[in-house]
Structures are given as C-alpha cells and as structure tokens.
Write a structure and sequence with these properties.
Blueprint (H helix, E strand, L loop, with lengths): L18 E17 L4 E17 L2 E14 L8 E15 L2 E13 L4 E18 L3 E15 L7 E13 L2 E17 L2 E19 L2
Antiparallel strand pairs: 1-2, 1-10, 2-3, 3-4, 4-5, 5-6, 6-7, 7-8, 8-9, 9-10
Length: 212
C-alpha cells in the first residue's frame, strides 16, 4: 500500500458495520537499492507522511502520502535523492481475518541531475491474526504489481511487495509497527538487467472515529 504500498497503509482492524473514519501519521526508515549492472547503489533515510481511511460495512478507501530524503551509503556509489509519493487503496473485507485490496501509487525520485516518476498498480491481500482479543493483531500482506511504469525505463517484468508487522487498537487509538519490502526486476537490455528494491520500517499512530 510504502507500501506501500506502501503498504500496510492503515490498520483496518475493526469489522465495524457503521461508518468509520481513521487517520494516522507515519514515520519510516527507507532503504533504496538499485542494481543497474554496475554494482548495488544504496541510499537510506527518513520519510514522514500520513494516511486517512474511510470504511463502511467491509468496504473502505484509504489515501496516503509520504516524503523524505535518502542519503547515499558511503562506498556504494550513486547520489542522494528525494522521494515523495501519494496513493489510494480500495479494500474489501469478505472475512473477519482477510482484506482484499488494490491500489495505485504515484512516486517520484529526484536528484540534482534528473527526476524519475513511477506509476505503480497493485492487487493483493492482507491477513490478520488476533494475538490479544480485539487489541493486538499480527498482520501480513502481499501484492503483485502488474503495472510498473517508470519514465526512461521499460515496464518492470516482475514486481511484488510484501509486509508484516504488529497492529494495536484500543478504543479510538491506532498504532502499528511494520516492515515492508518492494522488489522490481526490469527486462534484460543487452547483457544487463536492472533491479530495484525499497524496504521500509514504519511506525504509525492515529485515531479512529465511529461516525454512525
């Protein structure tokens, strides 16, 4: 969902039948790795943002956005970059422990040389297992990304993301701690093949309001 899809965007934990509005703030550590055939370039840094989710009777829409700066790890080559992204995720809950979801993310990597724009379309599911009644959950999520469009590059040949973590909800309060990994493999061009990986460790906290 930075996770994107991003993802573990919001802890959609309550099987509420009424209208519910949730909002969280996000702080995450990102690790971006690029291998264009000349060794792995790595950059890390902090990202901040937030998300909002509106749900009603098992159907929900979540909107999210993050931005931050990634600094090149010494000895790995490459240059520093800014990252920003916005996206939307639609969710359907057919079972109390299962959420089906799909979404789109618009992402931008900017350097002193150029700006690279990504469009990501994902589809997948989230499973959650209660560990302590209706308070603490273990959460796992996986998506396929059938569309990964990047300006200046061919569309990715294979792409996926996966995430896992713990989510906590007590009354109106929401918290989660999650790790997510995105992987992109692009088609061969001559004797080289480009691959990219973005991993995040995210802490989120917010509130949920029952509107009716």
């Amino acid at each position: 969902m930075l996770l994107v899809l991003p993802m573990l965007v919001l802890p959609a934990l309550a099987g509420a039948q009424g209208l519910e509005l949730s909002g969280v703030v996000t702080l995450m550590h990102g690790d971006h790795r690029v291998d264009a055939g000349f060794g792995v370039e790595r950059a890390t840094g902090l990202l901040a943002g937030g998300a909002a989710r509106l749900g009603f009777r098992g159907i929900a829409l979540a909107l999210f956005g993050e931005t931050g700066h990634l600094t090149t790890v010494q000895g790995s080559g490459g240059i520093d970059r800014d990252i920003s992204q916005v996206g939307a995720t639609a969710q359907f809950t057919p079972l109390p422990w299962l959420v089906l979801e799909s979404g789109v993310t618009l992402r931008s990597f900017g350097t002193v040389i150029a700006r690279q724009r990504w469009t990501l379309v994902c589809a997948g599911a989230e499973a959650r297992v209660p560990l302590s009644g209706e308070t603490i959950w273990a959460v796992g999520r996986a998506h396929l990304l059938p569309v990964v469009s990047v300006n200046g590059l061919p569309n990715a040949a294979t792409a996926f993301d996966a995430g896992t973590g713990l989510a906590y909800r007590r009354g109106r309060l929401l918290f989660d701690l999650t790790y997510a990994l995105e992987r992109y493999d692009f088609p061969w061009q001559g004797s080289t093949r480009r691959s990219e990986q973005l991993s995040t460790l995210a802490l989120r906290g917010g509130v949920a309001l029952r509107l009716r």
